[in-house]
Amino acid sequence: MGKAIEAIDLSIYYGSFRAVEGVNMSIRPKTVTALIGPSGCGKSTYLRSINRMHEVIPGARVEGRLELDGTDLYGAGVDPVGVRRQIGMVFQRPNPFPTMSIYDNVIAGQRLNNKRMRKDATDDLVERSLRGANLWNEVKDRLDKPGSGLSGGQQQRLCIARAIAVQPDVLLMDEPCSALDPISTLAIEDLINELKTDYTIVIVTHNMQQAARVSDYTGFFTIEGTGKPGKLVEMDETRTIFSQPKQKATEDYVSGRFG
Amino acid sequence: MSIDTDKRDAERTAAVRPTEDKIARQGRLPRWSTPGALAAAAVVVGGLLAATGAFSVGLFVFLTVVLFAVGLYALSRVVEGARKATDRVVTIVVTSAFLLALIPLISVIWTVLSNGIARFDVEFFNSSMRGIVGEGGGAYHAIAGTLVITALAAAMSIPIGLLTAVYLVEYGAGSRLARAITFFVDVMTGIPSIVAGLFAYALFALFAGPGVRLGFAGAVALSVLMIPVVVRATEEMLKIVPNELREAAFALGVPKWRTILKVVIPTSVAGIASGITLAIARVIGETAPLLIAVGITTGLNFNPFDGRQATLPVFAYYSYAAPGVPRDPYIDRAWTAALVLIVIVMVLNLAARLIARLFAPKTR
Question: Cβ of B262 and A85 within 8 Å?
Fold first, then answer.
């Protein structure tokens, strides 16, 4: 588990509109990479293109290459559904399935794909995933209760448990803490630190302190104006980005002079 | 500086004072003033009408309400102020409108109940009209026919309607085909039911020759009326399923069709089920299309592909429009048939509520 991602001159389009232009980025296995930048700069679009989730919007397409351990994810004959099974995603707003119990939410990836599993194997997977998401102790006595009865922070950790239960290689997180209170945020950040021993994690965040706290590498995206495509300005070790970035734009952004 | 502060304090007290006065000065009418005013209005109007000798219930109620509204407004305006008075008048108007809307409903239920209860007996439910002249007999054949034809119509409309809605929301959203379908579904919603009956009759006359009467033709006519209702109800329900749930399923590597089947539809199944039940309730009482396409018969016929079938609405219509001699047993049976129909619709509505509660996503 934990694979490398390589974007080579990747541009993302919605119809004829170019949303992101010419991204070259290599993400190392088992690291946390934060994507920062002002609103609308294309960092979420780029994140969603990594597991081909942006294709949900009609007319979305990419140019360039995006490789997962050397395999082109947009190559001919690659099934987006297969890609998403290897690259999990956690969204901005916690979205547990309202019709399912906590238990069923965790194994939703298996259940929805009609994967037959033995009862004890399922129990084991649920416990392992919930422990992995630091949620087991809080919910172990009410696994049969609906997931929507949990608090926002717990729901988000339930969604992380659900994402890691399908045993992906990469975990994408699209502003996973922006709807949460500081204590829940801290819980998720601790979790990200633990998860990187097994997974490659890419996280989009608006919170620069959070990027500094959790990530090993940081990529800074920006946009020149409305209607222009977003661009990756600079990517480096997080320490370098926040102390001596090479680009003026990055320095302006991380020091709070812009954005 | 200190002068400034003093001045501001003075201004503030001056600004605050009138507000306090307002709160203190505002009066309140006692709780019994509303029923009191209504009773007073009734007494005054009753007395006046009795004195002029032109008493009628409608006029009495109307004038009482008007006098009550005007009187309470004047009283409240003097004691409580303009805002409260307006509130009272609006409350009276809204309540009157509600009661007015309730009158025909209660009247219908009361009339049907009081006229239909006489023949609401065992014989009505276990015998047909075969060989019956005059008293006795029942509508077993009509109840059976209604249930068979409606079930058949539902069996045709629900899959078509459900899948159309799934296409409109999940696959076609915004495309030209989807917009065209939506438009024609809207047009279909407004089709007069007699047209649906004529369509089904004409369709079956093509195959079986003119004069064809068939339960199945009735079912086709009913599904023409039912499909747009099912599409509309299901579409609305599918639309309110949050997109986040679809994305959550996609991100787990679930294919689209499985996401729809196992996430989208289960999340909205409560609304869909109650929408479908209401669509059934809507067509079960249709008379005109069945009159044309199915006709009427006196005997029991469970087979919708073999000749005429009796149905409750048509049974009620013929019993009333073309009674035999003596007349009264026929009229009684017509009322009871109407009562049975109302009971069926009511049971369906209750079932819809039960289904909605049963399937609704739980939060605790």
Answer: no
pLDDT surpassing 90 at residue B229: yes
| Domains of chain B (ranges, CATH numbers) | 2-118 (no CATH), 123-359 (1.10.3720.10)
Cross-strand bridge partners of residue A173: A90, A203
CA B309 to CA B301: how far, in whole Å? 6
Pair A229, A18: CB distance under 8 Å = yes
Chain B nearest C-alpha distance from A216 (Å): 24
Is B268 in CB contact (< 8 Å) with chain A?
Answer: no
H or E stretch covering A61:
strand A60-68
pLDDT-based confidence at B364, cuts 50/70/90?
Answer: low
Q: In the predicted model, is pLDDT for residue A6 greater than 60?
A: yes
B248 touches chain A (CB under 8 A): yes
Number of residues written out for chain B: 364
- pLDDT score of B166 more than 90: yes
Give a yes or no: residue A191 inside a domain.
yes
Asked, for residue A127, whether it belongs to a domain, the answer is no
Residues A95, B263: C-beta atoms closer than 8 Å: no
**Which of B245, B247, B258 lies closest to A113 in CB terms?**
B258
Q: Which residue has the higher pLDDT, A254 or B337?
A: B337
Closest chain A residue to B254 measured between Cα atoms? A113
Window 2-31 of A: residues touching B by CB (8 A cutoff) are none
Burial of A255 (0-12, 13-18, 19+ CB in 10 A): exposed
Containing structural domain, residue A216: 5-97+169-254
Mutation for testing the A interface, residue in B254, B272, B364 having most A CBs under 10 Å: B254
Which residue of chain B is at minimal alpha-carbon distance from A164?
A: B252
Peptide bond into B304 cis (omega under 30): no
Provide the phi-psi class of B56: left if phi over 0, else alpha when psi is between -120 and 50, else beta: beta
In a domain, A195, yes or no: yes
pLDDT of B32 strictly over 80: yes
Is residue A105, in this structure, part of any structural domain at all?
no
How many Å apart are CA B247 and CA B253, to the nearest integer?
10
ipTM value greater than 0.90: no
- Per the structure, the count of domains in chain A is 1
How far is it, in rounded angstroms, from Cα A122 to Cα A106? Answer: 10
C-alpha atoms less than 13 angstroms from C-alpha of A182 in its C-beta half-sphere: 1
